[in-house]
Amino acid sequence: MLQINYQTSRIVVDRLPVACHWSVKHIQTSYHVTILKDDSVVHELTGVGDSTDLLLTGFELSEYGTYTVKINSCNSAGSMVSLSNSFITGNLGNFHGNWIAKPFQNNKDKPEDSSARNTVLRKCFPIQNAIDRAVINIAGLGFYNLYINGNKVSRNELNTDWTNYSKTVYYDTYEIKDYLKTGSNTLIIELGNGWYAPSEMKLFGKYNLRDILCSGGTQAIADIFIQGEGLSVRLSTDETWECTEGAYSTNNIYLGETLDSRLFSGRNTTELVSPRWNNVLLAKGPQGQMVSSYIPKIEKIKCLDFKEIHVLNESEFIVDFGETLSGLIDLSVSASEGQVITLTYAECLDDDYTLNTGSTLAGFIGKEVAPGIVINGGESSPGRAEQIDQLICRSGINHLVNKYTYHSFRYVKVSGMNLDQLLCIMAHKAYSKLESAGDFLCSDLYLNRLYEIARNTKLNNIHSVFSDCARERFAYGGDIVALAKSQVYQFNSAKMYEKTLSDFINDTRKNGGFPETAPFVGIKTNGTGETAGPLGWQLVVPFLLNIHYQHYGTLDLARAFFPFLERQLEHLNSVGYEGLLDCCLGDWGSRDSGAVDYKSGSPARNFTTACIYYLHVKLLHKFSTILKLNGKSEFYAKQIVNIRDRIIADFRNADDSFADKSQTSYVFALYMELSDNPKKLASDLANAIRDNNYLVTCGIFGQSFLYEVLRHYDENEVIMKWLHACGGFKSMLHDEDTTLKEFFGDIKNGSCNHAMFSSYTSWMTQGPGGIIIEDNARGSDSVRIQPAFLDSLQFVDCTHQTVRGYISCKWQRLTKGIEIVINIPFNLKKCVLVISEEYNVTGNIHEPQHSDGINQYFDIRNAGEVSVLLT
Q: Boundaries of each Bacterial alpha-L-rhamnosidase N-terminal domain copy (predicted)?
């Protein structure tokens, strides 16, 4: 395996350094790297040792090149393994083209832009000679689809990647040779509003995204490079391109879209009937730096057939897809001219077959959130911000597949047609196509179900950002922190984490603080001043950077982002310890929270806020040490001591508990290592959960940290019983549910497709699964295998794909004992198997390195496969 920039295929690079990671099945003693451009060597280097990751520099990237990286890895016996992979370059972000738009559409002051028919751009051009290569670099705002000679280019959906377009615009590079032909060619760019041309409705009654985001009218920019025998052509977006109105009369990322089938022929919405082509307008465009997109793209992942149809009357029926998904509808009908079909989407259905759309209302618009208080979205908003599509039909067969919106739904109410007209209805799951990085299977079917539910819910809410739910679709820093570790054990998140960090850095506030969400949408509840977010939500940058370093391991991000971390901490220090105590929402989602005021009702809020401040400083100290900034490291080390002493003085009780003795306070004290007797404190926490019928009352931070500390102190049985508790996830989930809800208990104001409580999967991997990337790891180079052999489990099969290679840990109970089979990559810095001293260990393993009176520690580095029996 050879990864380039954490990817294995379809790799586009526009800047140095290039990160390479590889794995081989031998003990490496040396390696040789060769980089070729179009079959010519441009760089070589040789290294000694077992390092299997490199940041490649020392050569220059040129436009429209094909580069191959070849690595020869050698062992002490002289055997060699050869690996290779390739990447391409486009225009390196140096666009010759201009942003182009439909005339007058790019005026931000025109509110009608977001509700007008969508824009279609066209360029016709001839090709006379045979071509060897053709490449296009393109960005379309808000979303775009690219067609060449009637064929869609790529499988991508809901593209371009969302970010702060005033700082960064991500462009795509495609090889398009196979789409072109000798003779006349037609290239079409169809545009949708996306996040660049949002409507002026006020989410939660106050946040107008059109005013807050970098926004404008839909537009595109493109460079095309065509090369062949005697041919080298560059075509770019300029005033010679044409534009017209498309077939979508409305499209909104939240509310849905209206497609008028009378305006096009066939199934392709760009095959317009009698279009009026006009000259384009050269638009100003956003000012962000053009950067090649590097994250996994949103695609249609899986097609679902309906499970049941319930007819309400002659012109209405409800389609049940059997599971909640985020995705696109796919509808085919036979209809009459001008017939209007309406599709309304919901996650829930009431007992009387009434569609319940309350959990997906955009920004709560139209929802009664308290007696007599209904959220008003303003003049540009519908009274109730439901997810609704409309299909205006032509006579004959009509087809609708969402292009510029996505929905969170299980149920669809179809109105305006009878069941006999229905030819086909399907749903496509659609989200950023992250590669799986882990699996978990065990003898407990309910635990397996929880794992898959967490996977489904996480993926349902990844659409170029880690969003919270369909109702908001925002990337909240706090949610990302809570799920950061569980995310990397389930998915290859290296590039998504890099983009997320960049998003928050791009939206750094004027005072140096980080926003509550990135892109910033105006929300700043209990923030640290001006428009900076609450302290726990600002934690996302140092916390995510640390997880990225532990699991993916390059220092370039730490170097690039360290100045922003310093500036943020300067801001926090200026607010001061006392001033910060009220600048957070605390352990969000805790069942111990006060019902009156969600902003201040979290348990031990001042204590947890102080702890988060402390963690900010600890992480900055870690990175200053790693980066060998010794003077700064010493400064932060002193600050750590001062803050820790202050927290202990202010919040430690006589019995060594902290603050209000809530579960949250125990967890934070343990996670922050504040106790002089942590094992007793962990035991006290476990007993508190037992005494509460195994119900965990922590919120999103508390639960995420709880799985770490209870596993560390071998209280895995408590976690197991919590996950099975009747008042826990079993009360949240009904028999057929495939996604988690936003809250336990009453979900009147909550989403039914919300991942913030899915952090338990990290415990499954690290606890019964036994695969632990240690806290001091760099790029997963330090691994601990320590399965928790819970009495209720008969077997566990756990895997994790790291940048160093594949890890698996499988164990099962046999009559003669517990059999464990472990596979680990070669060339790790450390890999230790930890087994309780109560077991006798036999198999292909050396004697333990040492014992501590509780556990035996076996060095299994470079062992490959280990098979042992515990008796």
A: 130-299
Residues 411 and 473 in one domain: no
Residue 691 in any domain: the answer is yes
8-state DSSP, 491: B
Number of helices (H), then strands (E), belonging to the chain: the values are: 15, 47
Q: Are strands 131-141 and 256-260 parallel, antiparallel or unpaired?
A: unpaired
Please say whether the beta carbons of 507 and 520 come within 8 A.
Answer: yes
353: tokens are 């077959």
How far apart, in Å, are the Cα atoms of 713 and each of 313, 485, 677?
A: 59, 18, 12
> Is 703 in contact with 478 (CB distance < 8 Å)?
no
Q: From start to end of 676-827, where are the E strands? A: 771-773, 782-785, 795-802, 805-814, 817-823
The answer to whether the beta carbons of residues 190 and 269 sit under 8 Å apart is: yes
Strands 242-245 and 256-260, how do they pair? unpaired
Distance (Å, rounded) from C-alpha 189 to C-alpha 223? 13
Cα–Cα dist 772/785, whole Å:
6
How many domains are there within the chain? Answer: 5
Q: Are residues 377 and 521 in the same domain?
A: no
Q: Determine whether 470 is exposed, middle or buried from the number of CB atoms within 10 Å of its CB (0-12, 13-18, 19+).
A: buried
Measured between alpha carbons, how far is 667 from 698 in angstroms, rounded to an integer? Answer: 9
Residue 101 and residue 286: Cα distance in Å, rounded?
12
* 664 to 591, 657, 669, 696, 782: CA distances (angstroms): 10, 11, 9, 9, 30
Instruction: Say what the pLDDT of residue 113 is.
Output: 53
For residue 109, what pLDDT is reported?
40
| Same domain membership, residue 449 and residue 418 | no
**Phi, psi (degrees; rounded to nearest 5) at 488:** -75, -25
Give the whole-angstrom CA distance, residue 698 versus residue 592: 7
pLDDT, position 114 = 57
Give residue 106's pLDDT: 44
Q: Which two tokens stand for residue 379?
A: 């003049």
φ, ψ dihedrals at 685, nearest 5°: -65, -45
Q: By C-alpha distance, which of 393, 398, 295 is closest to 340?
A: 393
pLDDT value at residue 332: 97
Domain enclosing residue 826, as ranges: 782-870
Decide: helix, strand or coil at residue 685.
helix
Regions in the chain scoring below 70 on pLDDT: 104-115, 594-600, 746-747
- CA diameter of the chain: 86
Token pair 């096009």 is at which residue? 264
Angle at alpha carbon of residue 555, lines to 552 and 560, rounded to 5°: 120
**pTM reported for the whole predicted model:** 0.96
Please state whether the peptide bond connecting residue 843 to the residue before it is cis, i.e. omega within 30 degrees of 0. no
DSSP helix, strand, coil percent of the chain (3-state; round to 5): 25, 35, 40
Running DSSP on this structure, what letter comes out for residue 113?
A: G
Q: Are residues 488 and 610 in the same domain?
A: yes
SS3 630: helix
